[in-house]
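Incident log, structure service

09:12 report received: a user says their structure output differs between two submissions of the same chain.
09:20 pulled the input from the user's history:
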Amino acid sequence: MLIPLIYLVLIFAGMYLVCGELERACGNTAHRLRIPESIAGATLLAVASSSPEFFTSFLGAVRFGVFEVGLMAILWSAIFNITVIPGVSALFSKEPLTVFRTVVVRDCVAYLVVTLLLLGLLQDGTLSRVDGIILLGGYAVYIYVLFLMMGDGDSEKVEPIEQPVWRTLLGLLGGIAAIGLLCHFMIEQGSVLAKVAGIDLLIVSALIFAPGTSVPDLLLSFMAARRGAGSAAISNAFGSNTFDLTVCLAVPVLVVGDTQIAMVGPVLWSVWMLVGTVIFSMIFVRIGYRLSRIEGALLLVLFVAQAIALVVLV
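09:34 re-ran on a clean worker, output below:
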């Protein structure tokens, strides 16, 4: 059991390094194309931070034939992103995180709507190509709303990192290819771990794959919080999740066609846990538009409690 765990740790470390390079390449591309910061964050930068979730979902469905593995990774990555990321950011910030009202109205509310949309689509136990198109449509509406809300002044400017064109192209193409390869090995080693330890693969996906693939988001938000950019930390957590629940789930469904999903046990509990977590996190952020260390600690406790509940329920 130790060997696959070591492999998984090395794979996650590789993802962190590759995602950092991919993040810089996407940021530089957005700067060269003069894409507004808020739009870049929900598109190109979302591709960078969410690429592990995308390939986990895509390879799980297309290569390994187990769509629920990717679904559980995305659901628990989302739960991780809106509990652990804001929680850690608030705990290690020099002062309570101040969050712009726009972030709550735009990113948090949009994510809640997308979560409820996914819940509605999953009620019949099937995700069809039509459902995939609906999810992509929801993401398109989100981007459109971002365009409409531009220019309200509630944004934190981030200086772009200049790099040569060849470095940008290498970072984009090489980074995406490397993440895809690492995710393939991750699912393989996770399957070995599940078999050796006698653990359900869905639990491995929820409690190992999801936190591991969310490390880039965690570190980005942590660094933003240390700079005092509270909105960036919260927006990154919620914004990347919107991409995960729409694009990362829609594309595999469009490729493989109608997919049966067992809406029982860990999958069903995880969906409802996510809905409750989104609402709970929004209430915390909405109260005074600040996150204190106490509230950050409560968010961390919430994640641990839900993880324990998932294991017990299984």
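09:41 both user submissions now match this output. Likely a transient worker issue. Closing.
09:42 reviewer note: The longest helix spans residues 165-197. The first strand starts at residue 97 and ends at 98.
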